[in-house]
Amino acid sequence: MGPHPAVADVRRAVREALADVQRDALVLAACSGGADSLALAAALGFVAARMGLRGGLLTVDHRLQAGSAERARTVAEIGSRDLGLDPAEVLTVTVGAAGGPEAAAREARYAALAEAADRLGAGAVLLGHTRDDQAETVLLGLARGSGPRSLSGMAAVTGRYRRPFLGLPRATTVAACAALGLDPWDDPHNDDPRFTRVRVRRRVLPVLEAELGPGVAEALARTANMAREDADALDEWAESAYQNCALSDIGAAGKPVELSVAELETLPDAVRRRVLRRAALAAGAPSGALFATHVLAVDRLVTRWHGQKAVDLPGGLTAVRRYGTLILAISPIA
């Protein structure tokens, strides 16, 4: 008799996600001890040796709850003793306050994962995000009024990070853990309504399922895939257009960027605004502080020109139009 269907599903997903990884490479599973990441670690432990890979585990102790250090050690022990993962390490982090608790914890976690992956020479790091997580991400993007890049959700592959379970519902990881005799840890933060994502998970999605019928999460995840394809295509077009519009050397970061207004005027709105964002970043604007309102203000120098003054941008940057040239540079522009 073969494995339980849920177990077969998670193993298949991990195997497909690692199909292009070089043999003998180290692959690490980021594991919190919850059902999603525990099923991920178990699948990696089964699949790695059969694919000629080495499987390991990283668990992060955020030190935000009593007993977190002991739980992290237990997760590492399960990875080493029961799942055959080596190394199995606990990464202890200090969570700051910038951007709110969710963002601060995420930033600390990814910084620790990146450092460990570099130190251990890992070829890939697996993350346990499921189709349900993807649906939540899309809804959060919709609530913020974000563009297609945000609505595209999480990518299956982002650099060293891979998310094998984006096509699987959370119920599959829960069933896989039960079939394998694994006892996931339920993080109380996952039920804390102070967190926006928890409210989306516990309140918003169930209402949508009840009112619109089953399959909402799957439809949102499918929307994310289509939005990602569109966003990728627009970004590729914008990069080519940026090269065509440039009147200055755009190879040096932080240097003034000059763009041809005549060329910018020929572009569709979605492409032109991507070009302007790309130019602002190249000229020195910090990405985390550059918002759509800033890009739209610069866009008006192209599309609604009536001799207006320069536009101030984050990072001490200024955008100004002069004689058919749009100039973005650190203030003041001579």
From TrEMBL:
Its EC number is 6.3.4.19. ATP binds at S32, G33, G34, A35, D36, S37. Residues 27-202 form the tRNA(Ile)-lysidine/2-thiocytidine synthase N-terminal domain. CDD domains: TilS_N (cd01992). It catalyses: cytidine(34) in tRNA(Ile2) + L-lysine + ATP = lysidine(34) in tRNA(Ile2) + AMP + diphosphate + H(+). Belongs to the tRNA(Ile)-lysidine synthase family. HAMAP family: tRNA_Ile_lys_synt (MF_01161). This is tRNA(Ile)-lysidine synthase. It comes from Nonomuraea aridisoli. The lineage of its organism: Bacteria, Bacillati, Actinomycetota, Actinomycetes, Streptosporangiales. The gene is tilS.
